[in-house]
Specification:
Elements lengths: L2 H24 L6 H14 L34 H34 L5 H24 L3 H25 L5 H22 L2 H17 L7 H21 L3 H22 L5 H21 L15 H22 L7 H22 L4 H25 L3 H21 L2 H21 L11 H19 L7 H29 L4 H26 L2 H25 L2 H24 L13
């Protein structure tokens, strides 16, 4: 290329950039600084044309300005009748044709079978050939980009292979169980390999589903526990390998469910006491496999930010594995080893704590992995919760659950973890239910007894919750509820002490009824004082409600049931308290109208 060609190209480049700038101006798009700078630089370089390179006769004249057409950039080309026609003709009719061929072929084979044109061996052979043919045929569609349709055909073909092998043994009795079993293992293994090579989770799920269905399809109605459990162990080992190479967490969840169902079915039909060692050994092996699965599970490679949540399937698997295993141990060991079950629960809890620490070392310390670690800790706490009633008695069960609830809620508050908060609340509800409705502790001393101290423990937990949620509008409901429950527990504890004291006193129920009224008056007055001091309308409203209950009791019960002396004391005490509170309200001594907020 000589200098004249170079000058011609530079001239055309200048005109091209001018047109681009004009197009951007007309489309209300400001040109980027890089384009403007580069254009100015090009103009500066090409404007002064050296005389030694060319003269006026050799420089091509600049072409006349051409008005650029209006800029129109549709986001998606409109679908024309021709493109819709190609979709219908090239895809829809193709799939309908495939379905028609399959349906017609199935009707032909059905007709041939009914008329004995094809014998049992021929039927099985045709099924195997058709299954293999459909799987091979599906590869044609996959290579053309129709992956979903290809996987659909593979599912059909693999299903035909499983059914053909099942029919060869169960229906036509052409081959022994071992041959049919080996054929199904081959089909399962081949499907799993295809799934890994083609990165198709649906095919991996189909492979494992066929694998776990194989013992069901080939069942002879006899007890072959060792063979069954060994086969399940091999399938679960394959699941672990898949977990290592692919982030297919649903495969692990499905394998756990299938293993559990097959074991339960075997136990319900065939288990006897002489198979205890076999059952405990294999259930422990399965438990270890599914305990390891979340530790080995490959995490999905996120293109964007690291996901902050863990896989729901793995979270459920961690908890379900602990529940299922301990339930199986209880069923197997309850009669002979009942006293050891609590210690087994504690041992399993330690295993889960260790697993929770290991998962953060084995895998990356992402938010999702940290959540899985906390789920392991939650499972450990749940096992300890179960161990408490197995080993402890009476109110110590309640104390154990309350302490556990306090620990869980404290950790949840530090970690801001909703799962631990839920488990802590669940343990707290269990402890409260047992404290109020189940525990009947005889108190030998007033106040300083196991029952009252257990109530104090529960009140301390709710006091801690109230303090933690005192700030922030989002926690206002929790703060309010915790204060209400705290006061209810305090009244229950005091009433129980009053009832015990009256039972041991000679005056009997008269002393009890009067003391109830007196305690309620004093408590409501204390609440009112606290409401005045804290300038909390909520606390004062609680006092007014309790005071209303006390007034109803004094006027409608004490008036008729109590002796004259107790009756006089009840009315005088109530009247003095009410007058004092009324005086404060009427004179507005504390300037309650100036309150800008009603904090509880």
């Amino acid at each position: 290329m000589d200098e004249r060609d170079l000058l011609q190209l530079r001239s055309e480049l200048i005109e091209l950039r001018r047109r681009v700038l004009e197009l951007e101006r007309r489309s209300a798009l400001s040109p980027g600084p890089a384009i403007m700078q580069e254009t100015a630089q090009t103009v500066a370089e090409t404007a002064p044309i050296p005389l030694e390179l060319a003269d006026e006769a050799t420089i091509p004249p600049a072409p006349p300005p051409i008005a650029p057409p209006p800029l129109s950039l549709p986001l998606r080309p409109p679908r024309t009748a021709a493109s819709l026609e190609s979709v219908i003709g090239g895809q829809w009719l193709n799939r309908i044709g495939i379905a028609a061929v399959l349906i017609g072929t199935s009707y032909f084979l059905k007709y041939a079978f009914e008329n004995n044109w094809i014998g049992p061996a021929g039927r099985v052979s045709i099924g195997l050939l058709v299954g293999i043919g459909v799987v091979l045929w599906s590869e044609v569609f996959r290579k053309r980009g129709h992956e979903f349709f290809s996987y659909s055909l593979k599912i059909v073909g693999i299903g035909i292979l499983y059914l053909s092998l099942w029919a060869s043994f169960q229906v036509f009795h052409l081959v022994p169980a071992a041959v049919a079993f080996g054929g199904m293992v081959v089909v399962t293994s081949a499907t799993a390999l295809i799934a890994v090579r083609q990165n198709a989770q649906i095919l991996a799920a189909l492979a494992l589903a066929g694998g776990y269905l194989t013992p069901v399809l080939l069942s002879t109605g006899e007890n072959h526990a060792l063979t069954l459990f060994s086969y399940l162990a091999l399938l679960n080992a394959a699941m672990l390998v898949l977990s290592l190479v692919k982030p297919w967490h649903r495969i692990a969840g499905g394998a756990f469910l299938a293993t559990l169902l097959l074991y339960v079915a075997w136990h319900a039909s065939w288990y006897t006491r002489d198979q205890l060692t076999l059952a405990v050994g294999f259930t422990t092996l399965f438990f270890v496999m599914f305990l390891v699965a979340p530790l080995m599970a490959r995490q999905p490679e996120a293109a964007g930010p690291v996901p902050s949540t863990a896989s729901p399937v793995l979270m459920i698997l961690i908890l379900a594995n602990a529940v299922a295993y301990f339930a199986q141990l209880n069923i197997l060991l309850w009669k002979e080893f009942h006293d050891w079950l609590a210690w087994l629960a504690v041992l399993l809890a330690a295993v889960y704590v260790l697993a929770g620490a290991l998962i953060r070392r084995i895998q990356d310390d992402s938010p999702g992995v940290r959540t899985l670690s906390l789920v392991h800790v939650a499972a450990a706490i749940g096992l300890v919760t179960v161990a408490v009633p197995l080993k402890l008695n009476a109110h110590w069960i309640t104390v154990g659950w309350l302490i556990e609830a306090a620990a869980l809620l404290w950790v949840a508050a530090r970690q801001s973890d909703s799962l631990l908060r839920f488990l802590g609340n669940a343990a707290l509800v269990l402890g409260l239910f047992r404290l109020i409705f189940i525990d009947h502790i005889e108190a030998a001393h007033l106040i300083l007894n196991a029952r009252f101290l257990t109530y104090v423990l529960a009140m301390a937990i709710f006091a801690g919750i109230a303090l933690h949620t005192a700030s922030g509008t989002s926690k206002k409901d929790v703060h309010t509820l915790s204060i209400i429950v705290l006061n209810i527990l305090a009244l229950l504890a005091i009433n129980l002490e009053v009832a015990d004291f009256s039972r041991r006193n000679a005056s009997g129920h008269l002393m009890r009824d009067f003391t109830f009224s007196a305690v309620w008056m004093i408590y409501s007055a204390s609440l009112m004082a606290a409401g005045f001091y804290k300038r909390s309308s909520f606390t004062r409203w609680m006092s007014l409600i309790l005071m209303a209950v006390t007034i109803i009791k004094v006027f409608f019960y004490d008036l008729s049931e109590l002796e004259r002396g107790y009756r006089i004391l009840s009315f005088i005490a109530l009247g003095v308290i009410l007058l004092a509170i009324s005086f404060v309200y009427q004179r507005n001594l504390l300037k309650l109208g100036d309150e800008t907020s009603h904090r509880s």
